[in-house]
Amino acid sequence: MVTKLRFGASLLLACSLACSKPQATPTSTNPSSTSQASAPASAGAATSSKAPAKLERLRLSGIPDADKDKLSAQYAAVTKYLTGVLGVPVEYVHAPDYAAAVSGLAANKLDLVWLGGVTAVQAETETGGQAVFVAARDTDLRFKSYFIANKALIEAGKFQALQSFEPGSLASLAALKPSLSGLRFTFGAKSSTSGHIMPRTFLEDPAVGIEPEQHFKAAPGYQLQGGHSATLEAVASGAFDVGVLNYSTWDKADVAKKQAAPVIAVSPEFVDYCFVAHQRLGEAWIQKLRTALVELDPAQPDQKAVLEVFSASKFVKVDPKAWDGIRAILKTGKQRGILD
Hints:
Elements: H1 9-17, E1 58-62, H2 68-86, E2 90-92, H3 98-106, E3 112-115, H4 117-126, E4 131-137, E5 145-149, H5 151-155, H6 170-174, H7 177-180, E6 185-186, H8 193-204, H9 212-215, H10 227-236, E7 242-246, H11 247-252, H12 255-260, E8 263-266, E9 274-278, H13 283-294, H14 301-309, E10 315-316, H15 324-333
Parallel strand pairs: 1-2, 1-3, 6-7
Antiparallel strand pairs: 3-9, 4-9, 4-10, 5-7, 5-8
Helix pairs in contact: 1-15, 2-14, 3-4
């Protein structure tokens, strides 16, 4: 049984959001999977001052929060843009799971990876403190999760479908506690920030008081393949009654899928995704990458295509301390069975 988190959500929010303001200014190889842990808040805050003499190619990847074919097609716009800006070939390398996205960066199989909040922090430990937080979407500094239910439960009056999707509160989750009891519930991937770690943290907060392993009909499920889209499908199909996922995945889904699994609650805000590079690239290349991302212009078709891949209006520079709340959770997360 998973032991309840003891890190209060209110403290987590204060810790994460205090530093979350934007800062001024072809052939693929699957990286292997290894275990992860947490890292000090200072890790990844600086880059190596010595740049490599020549970068012959840059290997780009991201956590598989959608299916492989969809990700490969989406990243084509990203690799094309970065190849043109950097003047070196940029290759997309598919990571088969969240752990592989992290271990690939540490094992010199990947150079730049789009990671969630949890995996970004895990990368600090896996790389021995050589992970550099490059840039994030402005929305990543104020992220949220959607709790969704099968439409049959809405029709039966068990839940009410939301019409407004502003960030919620612990009180709004607590109000659902009686209705959630005895239902089949699924998280996303175990290492997913928005599909597991943060929703679990909010549910287990004393102000909500839901222990997932005891409150639902059975131990909660996890979506091991297909990312957040798999969670949406699992609830929409009736395989699970209720689930939680990245809000962006639900927002982008077709109308029929949304109607089959309406939103019944929105989580409080938290910090999530970030582009993370390895220091071995050198300061000069990392700065080029940061500039290429931060200066994306939606008025330019090729750059707009990149922004659309990430459902972003813009990317911003970030302070690694914004992820301190997640670091605090991960200090004991693995021992408590929260992570693999």
